[in-house]
Amino acid sequence: MRSYFTIIVALITTFVAVFATPVFALQSEPRAHYSLNEGWRFNDISKPNATVQYLDLPHVWSVGDVVPSTASYSRQLHVPHTLRGKRLFLRFGGVMTQTNVFVNGNWVGEHRGAYTAFTFEITDKVRYGENNTITVHVSNSSKFDIFPVSTEHNLPGGIYRDVELMVTGRNIISPTFYSSAGVFVEQHEVSTERVSGVVTLYLSAMDEGAHNITVRFIAPDGYEVCRYTAKAGKAEKQSGVEIPYSIDYPDLWSPESPTLYRVEAMVGNADKPSDRVSFDIGFRSVGVSKNNRLTINGNEVDIHGVNLAHDRAGVGAVLTDAELRQDLDLVKDMGANALRSVVGPHRESLYDMCDREGVVAWVDMPFTRNSALFGDICYYPSESLRENGFEQLREVIYQNYNHPSVVMWGLFSLVSQHGDDVVKYVRELNDLAHLLDKSRPTVGCSNADGDINFITDLIVLRQDVGWYKGSFEDVSVWCRQLRENKKFKELRYGVCYGEDGCISHVVDVVQRVERGARLRPERAQTAMHECYSSIITESGQFWGVWLDNMFDYASMFRVEGMNYSGMVGYDHKTKKDAYYLYRALWNSSEPTLYIAERRWKSRCDAVQRVRVYSSLERPMLIVDQDSVELHEVSKSRWQADSVVLNDRSIVRVVDGTGLHRDSVEITIDKMRVSR
User: Rounded to an integer, what distance in angstroms lies between the CA atom of residue 54 and that of residue 4?
Assistant: First the structure.
């Protein structure tokens, strides 16, 4: 999202020459992709006399907050005569939230939803040899018939992912089938001896007669494993062609060994196809064992997961591949092996990375509720909203179907059961998800009792006992009640937890957080995670542990406009104490040695407790020049009580080899009143 140069409208011919001509660089593939990110005019049409801006995409019109508005994006596109006989498509990676697209003033189509891609054919709307005007009207105003109706995640508004022009031949694999690859590799049987299933290909052919279809599977070493051919008749719209496949002795995909095969699907002559789509696929099965563990290929996997929002300081929802790469590196460095795309899917490149690196992904559809608002309504039984939910679920599943890292579909998050019958609607969503994809389980995230917990294949129970009332140790009572409750024994349940911790909110005394209070101390967040992680790990009863959230994110409904629940700050760089706690617990490949409460630099009392997170055995504490004994509180947590500090003390911790160390400086100000 960077500013473009100002240009005089009278020089529009020069504008087109600069920006339209380079779009059509020579491409050898039968399906050509051209970026349309550059050279857009932006106008906030909800504001009288708004100034036109010239900018490049991706773009949002508000960062860190929400400005409800309706805006117009437009640009010129010169379509040369040489493209006559070709088919032209516009593909949008993501627009918040309601979008209408026009070409030369002619309406092309509408999309309703913030997190999924959409594609429109514009072949009959363009003028060849002339300049064409593409106009996109976008609104992020709250709608009662578009999910999410209620959310604490900001919807800042704008074309926040890439836009491209796709040029194809006449007979092609459909790019408009839910803006997906148009090819789906269904896995019916998966074992080390054999994998088999059906490849379903959606053909969009304009010419009469039979059309050759070829599907190739290419092994990781580059050799073709098998090839299948079929014929299909003309399909003026789009129709599915099913091709059975079977591969003997495949290398299966798993988090430990993320093996990928290449799939190529072609229409026409295989040596010179009229269209070709290729993507990576991994063969694996997903299930749940009798003792409530997620299994991949029959092997149990302890899921250590994090929720991942769609927001970052300075850029909002405009996340580049490089920024997603940084985020995933932090997720992996902390030792998490799974991530959850909350509210909706991230851009596809994130799942490409997860495919290659064995990170498990849970992808939500945007059916959620803003738990920060009392009595907020997240569902209306109107047909337009219901159908929008079905449509967005189809888009989520079809657009991410072929990613082996995506192992579950999220249907709801923290929705309320009060008012209209939301349980019935969740059942309908669950049935649709199973109809579209029989190979993956469904999952929901719930903070309520009742029937809503017994619909999806998996459930994740959101817990926060001790935050506003009671004590953190009460989570042990909750765990025991789950184990002893006969009805809940039927559930395949995981757990999700996390609360605010602002790194700039430093206190001497950790107290229970008050609802609506502006103070959200990091030390309170750390205390919660220390207690929860110890008790929940010891219980061993959950198929997955999910931390809410990996990063702080902006939320206009929250105190100070921010949700501070992240393990890492809003800058996606500043690691909190809780980050190092889980790094010590979860990252077995790299050592962790960290002194906690390091932002509490100035203290009132000379007698202090020092806390250390360590994945190493027997860390040693040194205060100034004196050694102090540490005792292990729980796994990876060490502590020294009644440590006497000087007015200014250097506190160090080292491992037995002396290769790993950490240090902090603490000052004692006895005249300061504790806070």
Answer: 5
Using CA atoms, how far apart are residues 25 and 38, in angstroms rounded to an integer? 15
- Answer for the pair 664, 598: CB distance below 8 angstroms, yes or no: yes
Pick the CATH number of 287-590 from 3.30.300.30, 3.30.1330.60, 3.10.280.10, 3.20.20.80: 3.20.20.80
CATH architecture classification, 183-284: Sandwich (2.60)
- For strand 360-364 and strand 406-413, is the pairing parallel, antiparallel, or unpaired? parallel
Q: Tell me phi and psi for residue 649, to 5 degrees.
A: -125, 145
Whether residue 121 has pLDDT greater than 60: yes
**Interatomic CA distance for residues 605 and 600, integer angstroms:** 12
Reported as type and span, the H/E element at residue 197 is strand 194-205
- Domain range 9-173, CATH architecture: Sandwich (2.60)
Distance separating the N- and C-terminal Cα atoms of the chain: 42
DSSP assignment of 64-95 equals SS----EEEEEEEEEE-GGGTTSEEEEEES-E
d(CA 535, CA 543): 15
Intrachain domains 183-284 and 602-668 with the same fold:
yes
β-bridge pairing 593-595 and 626-628: unpaired
Structure token pair of residue 364: 């939500």
Distance CA 6, CA 489 (A): 64
Asked whether 139 and 70 are in contact (CB, 8 A), the reply is yes
CA distance 88 to 90: 7
The distance of Cα 255 from the centroid of its chain, to the nearest Å, equals 18
Please state which CATH number belongs to domain 602-668.
Answer: 2.60.40.10
Task: Taking each helix axis as running N to C, give the angle between helix 422-436 and helix 383-400, from 0 to 180 degrees, rounded to the nearest 10.
Answer: 30
Give alpha helix (H) positions in 334-447. 348-357, 383-400, 422-436
Please determine, for residue 521, whether its predicted confidence score (pLDDT) is greater than 50: yes
User: In degrees to the nearest 10, what's the CA dihedral of 516, 518, 524, 528?
Assistant: 40
pLDDT in tens, 289-343: 988 999 999 999 999 999 999 999 999 999 999 999 999 999 999 999 999 999 9
- Domain boundaries along the sequence of the chain: 9-173, 183-284, 287-590, 602-668
Confidence class for position 416, pLDDT limits 50, 70, 90: confident
**Span 37-86, pLDDT tens digits:** 999 999 998 888 889 999 999 999 998 888 899 999 999 999 999 999 99
